[in-house]
Structure formats: C-alpha cells, structure tokens
C-alpha cells in the first residue's frame, strides 16, 4: 500500500529575500521500492493487467532506469512475473539498479542499441506478443494513458493554494497528468531532463489531448537545465544537490529532481516568479538511481 506524500515547506534565506514560498511534494516517500511518479504511472496499469488476467509485466529501459526498478518491485509486491528488456550489453557484476531488479525476480534480457531502437515497431511488438502471450506490455518510461491517469493524482491531495507546480520531465507523462488534473488552474513548469527538450511540447499536448480531449495554455517547458543531456552531470549540479541535502536533509538525484530544483532556484534568482508566489515542486523520487551514480562517478551524494 502506498504511504502519504506530504508537502514539505523549504526554508531558505533566498526564498525569504524573494518572498517566495516553496514546498516540495514528497512523492519519493509514497512507496519504499516503487518510487514516486513510477508508482503513480503503474497504479492503473497494474489494475488493468489483473483485469486482463496477465501474469507477467514486460517492459524496456536503460541499465539505470527507475522504471525498470519500479516494475521489478511492483511485480514482486503484486505477484506478477517481470521481464525487462535492457538497452545495451550485459555487464558483470550487475549495476545496483539491475541487481535490485534481479533480486525482485525480474528476468533480464539485453538488446543491442540498434535492436532496442526498434522496440516500438509493430513487427517487433507482434513477435514479442507471440512469444509472451501472458505478458502485459509497458512502454519504456512507463507512459501510456493509464499512466497519465495515475499522475493526475499527484496533485489531487495538495491542501494549500499555490501559483506554480514544477515537475521534471522525461517522457512528459507525469507532466501531462498534472496539467490535465489542474484543468487550467495555476501555472505548470516542466523541466526536461533531456537536451533539446522542446520536443516534449508536442508530446505532452498529445498525451493530454488523448486523455481528456483538452488543450491548455497554463504550462511551459524550461529547457535550459539539462546540464548537457540525459543523465549528464556537471560539478555545479552536484554541488547544488549536496548543499540542498546538507541544508534540508532531502536527497535529490541528478537525472531529474536535482536538475529541476537547480532550475527553480535559478529562476527564483532571476526574479522569474512574482514576489508572494507559492511554488509546489514535485519530488518524483528515483533515488534508487543514486547508488549507480555514486559507483560510476565516485561521488557521495
Ligand atoms: C521517470 C522519472 C521522471 C520523468 O517522468 P515522465 O513521466 O517520463 O516525464 C521524473 N522524475 C523521476 C525521479 C523519474 O524517475
């Protein structure tokens, strides 16, 4: 069962100076293993998989994927077999993400990068469906319409008035759910984790359109905080995350939430937000990924 994801007030001199109220919505506390937005995205998919009497969850992801870790943990908790198709070559020993997935019982298969890119091709999918007739398929990153539906619940239980919601974006599914549930209320800022994140404008709009047929104008992307690209880091980002942890005792990870909060602080410094504004930033979780980063970069977060 998921726990609560409370709002936490962030106190800091900069915020006082600029008269900004900042809360973190601690979605990272929602579930110990199925973290943050990945729990939101899986919820209705798990219900649907049971309804279809599937006994297996099958999905795709990179070797450090939060989605892979979440699907593996969800399978263990809700009695599904799990199959993960992993991008790239196998490496021994397994990295912390894949070790966790395997410990949860996930069967790991590796696809070379060329084959991995074909994973959404109809012929490829059909082949897999024949091979795994009992499997419920989840796309890379977990975003489909049921995932968007789950993400509408991220902001359903926020008990305060706010002017801005801020959220990191990979596929944009979480952002789409948040925007749809706000239904035109407040402003939403999305922080793409990928370089060239402008492409998400169309993707997010399309998810929303499919979900509830609406088109909204109360949101925008902040595309300047990718730090060189997906899962790329720079010393300034690491220093920011370490300082944030030291001050607030809240861990961030460098792929999504670290970049988003760095961006929010930068925008506050630039007076992007009107004095008196209240911002709710979503901590989408993903902290399982820290161990892999620590190992690769020799950094303590
Ligand atoms: C996957 C993930 C995201 C991105 O979610 P999308 O719905 O793909 O945009 C954001 N934050 C964290 C921590 C994630 O693991």
From TrEMBL:
| Keyword terms, alphabetized | Pyridoxal phosphate
According to its UniProt record, which cofactors does this protein need?
Answer: pyridoxal 5'-phosphate
- Specify one Pfam family: PALP
Domain named Tryptophan synthase beta chain-like PALP: which ranges? Answer: 13-285
**Which InterPro entries does the record associate with it?**
ACCD_DCysDesulf, TrpB-like_PALP, TrpB-like_PALP_sf
GO MF annotation, one? D-cysteine desulfhydrase activity
Question: Please, which domain of life does this record's source organism belong to?
Answer: Bacteria
Which residues does UniProt mark as catalytic? 65
N6-(pyridoxal phosphate)lysine, modified sites: 38
State the family named in the UniProt similarity comment for this chain.
Belongs to the ACC deaminase/D-cysteine desulfhydrase family.
Query: Which protein are we looking at?
Result: 1-aminocyclopropane-1-carboxylate deaminase/D-cysteine desulfhydrase
